[in-house]
Amino acid sequence: MRHFVPSLPLAALVMALGTGILADDAAAASLVMGIQQEPTSLDPTSDATASIDGMLTQNVFESLTTVNEKGEVLPQLAESWTVSDDGLTYVFKLVQGTKYHDGTDFNADDVKFSFDRAMAEGSTNPTKSIFAPIASVTVIDPNTVEIKLKKKDAFFLFNMAQGDASIVASESADANATTPVGTGPFKYAAWTRGDRLTLEKNADYRGAGTVALDKIEFRFIPDAAAASAALLAEELDVYAGFPAPEMLPQFQADPRFDVTIGSTEAEVILAMNNSKPPFNDLRVRQGISYAIDREELIDGAMYGQAVPIGSFYPPHGPAYVDLTGMYPHDVAKAKALFKDAGVEGSTMTLRVPPFSYATRSAEIIQAQLAEAGITVKVENVEWGFWLDEIYKKLNYDMTIISHPGPNDMGNFARGPKYFYGYDDAAYNDLWKQISEETDADTRIALLKKGQTYLAENAVHGFLFQLPQVNIQKKGITGLWVSQPVLFRPLAGVKVE
């Protein structure tokens, strides 16, 4: 039986995750952070919008486990756990004395409630698939939970750190979309729609002494020019995921700012609706892949600040295979494939959400497909519309979107109801092997096979990996440079 116990006491562990200082040693501190996307909900267990995790997961909400910037799994609401030799039974020992922000006690019943709720038939959890391996959740005592799996899951402890697996209380769960209540180092204060979200320090947090910030204010500024102006006017302390790489030189030359460029898990794709003609024809998808010029796309949309991809896996990952050469830019091949498939001269619609990487890429891809004889009608849509019509109803031909979640090649095994409209029995079997393989070397080999399979089938147009561009005032420490997960822990951030 394998047993995990952190080598540091919990308070010291929280300290190690950032550069937090004792609150008594510092004056009240606040952080004003600009972000691009305002969510339509504040509940990460019911909405797929990435910015919910970026603001609330591991700040307001907590999970059994957490992940550090290196991608390593660490304890959180579970202070330790044991795993049976067959890899199917996990017993979690929970932290004691923790309360929700409304004063409700946290205990094992909350873990069972949260998991049962996520796994329920009518659940709206955006990533129900991470709970699919679970056979049962049993409360042993108020501080102990046993989770039995139906099959081994190589990503189980990692997935339990995600916002989808946040532990919530039955008393407050239904209201979390507008007034979130968690156990984290910060608690919800206010949400002014269209403007900002405010969090304040949770003075009763079990690691409160390590949290330097008293207040965090997220400002929703999707427009790059407005974001730049707010930074230069010092209305913002930091902008996480700055959307305009062409503006970086002025900040890099300004002594008031630090600019960092890290990696993310966000693959940007030209998604094609595989469930409808003509995108259910491999020749059409291959033709589109040949028509795309990634170098031109990255130069034009990202000003060179992105890495090209040829499949659905981050270039910094241990299993990465460079498949960008499988469909080199070749207009003649694209035209031939379109003619063979009977779609030359046809019109396709490209619906894009209001993010600069998407809107800029759409214009370039429109021109590139025009060279190959395809007319593309670009429609810019609001995020709420995108979630409803594209993500939920599959009402689209093509779209451009980033996928910031880690270990998410399983998206292609989610069946025809997922917005890809992709259903492939061979890939489903391959992903089953990947997800159940606990030997790292064998799993890496299978991941390489999966990348190649997706590229060969040109499921989407694989474009580039988004960088993590942060602009911040000098004197701010503890912010992550890279983004290995959707969340961004701020308990260790210090403002001098």
Structure description:
This protein is an alpha+beta fold and 496 residues long. It has 2 domains: 2-203 and 474-495, Dipeptide-binding Protein, domain 1, CATH 3.90.76.10; 265-465, Dipeptide-binding Protein, Domain 3 (Dipeptide-binding Protein, domain 3). The chain is built from 13 helices and 20 strands. It has helices spanning 10-16, 50-55, 108-119, 156-159, 224-232, 248-252, 282-291, 294-302, 331-341, 356-371, 383-392, 425-436, 440-456; strands spanning 2-4, 30-35, 65-67, 73-75, 78-83, 89-94, 134-141, 144-149, 186-192, 196-201, 215-220, 238-240, 257-272, 307-308, 347-352, 375-380, 398-403, 461-473, 476-477, 494-495. The strands form 4 sheets. Strands 2, 9, 10, 11, 12, 13, 14, 15, 16, 17 and 18 form an 11-stranded mixed sheet that branches. A hairpin with a 3-residue loop joins strand 9 (186-192) and strand 10 (196-201). Helix 7 packs antiparallel against helix 9 (331-341), helix 8 (294-302) packs antiparallel against helix 10 and helix 12 (425-436) packs antiparallel against helix 13. The N and C termini lie far apart (46 Å). The relative contact order is 0.17.
